[in-house]
Amino acid sequence: MTAVENVLIVGGGTAGSALAIPLARAGVSVDIAEIEPAPTALGSGITLQGNALRMLRDLGVWEQVSAVGFAFDSLGLRTPDGSLLAEIPDARTGGPDLPATLGMNRPGLAAILADAVRESGARTMLGVTVDALDDTGDTVRVTLSDGTAGAYDLVVGADGIRSKVRGLLGIDAAPEPTGMGIWRIHTRRPKEVERTDLVYGGPCFIAGYCPTSQDTMYAYLVERARPRDAVADADKPAHMRALAEGYGGAWDEIRADITDPDRINYTWFESLLVDRPWNRGRTVLIGDAAHACPPTLAQGAAQCLEDAAVLAELLLAADRLDQDLFDAFMDRRHERVKAVVEASVQLARWQLDHVEDADVPGLMGRIAAMVTERP
Known about the structure:
Blueprint: E1 6-10, H1 14-25, E2 29-34, E3 45-49, H2 50-58, H3 62-68, E4 70-72, E5 74-78, E6 84-89, E7 101-105, H4 106-120, E8 123-126, E9 130-135, E10 140-144, E11 149-152, E12 154-157, H5 164-168, E13 176-188, E14 196-201, E15 204-211, E16 216-224, H6 236-244, H7 251-256, E17 264-273, E18 279-280, E19 283-285, E20 291-292, H8 300-317, H9 323-352, H10 360-372
Parallel strand pairs: 1-2, 1-12, 2-8, 5-14, 12-19
Antiparallel strand pairs: 3-7, 4-7, 5-6, 9-10, 10-11, 13-16, 13-17, 14-15, 15-16, 17-20, 18-19
């Protein structure tokens, strides 16, 4: 007998889906309340490090992911004119039998996880979120935004960085901007782009790209944050092209394709870390609802997947749900996530402050060594 018989997961993104799949496969009745009226995935592409790939393999979707993504095992550092400075072997944090890194289209990952959710037997309710929670001690009575109500052994807030569940629990935590903003575009992959290459310097803090399939990639430019509405949609291509003028090599071809504002996404780098515990009674936060970090270490999705894996393991191994289980969850997750968030923010801060002697390789190496160990 598992610790729970029925679970409501609020949010059907990476963390919510990754939790629903193993629970439903084990016979737990799982409902997912997803506020979007149809399947969606923001952003253009996603970079998945080896420890994220390990979690996806554990979920049984690695073959589908590897078939549509673009795997690579090194990182390139270039000068603004496109010249190669260094080619660095990337850490295989998922183990020697998985690539170090894989890029893929974000909607593709969402579709693979959604298929696995359906096959697991979990039920997804689209266009619905939670409006009220009432924890009676033995159950959580839930009122949904469509007026329906139900009772669950466990409610999981996996509803993102601006989590409604977090607010309903009275947890006073909010994302904080780091001072950087990132421009992304989904575009064609030049033939010479076979891994992530980064430029530190030029008109931006970072200029980089990541292949996401045999034909596609996403490219990004990181500058000092500006108001989100400072550049009108119609002017976004011209602004991003102007930033890209300072870069050569593959950027010559990328720049020529920066024409469609619908393929351009601008967001701020933000960070969030909820103090332990992440639960209040029988409701718990996971993923971006509990922690988020700028993408300087490309660990955001990996940490969401790890949260789901650890929580599912604990729930399926226990015969009751109590604070001891949530404390065990925190013991395995909080310090690890805290290290990732703090390191990701530190990398951004060093660049904003123009710290020339920052030990970037040392910091990245310490995080890589940590996440190579299973959570």
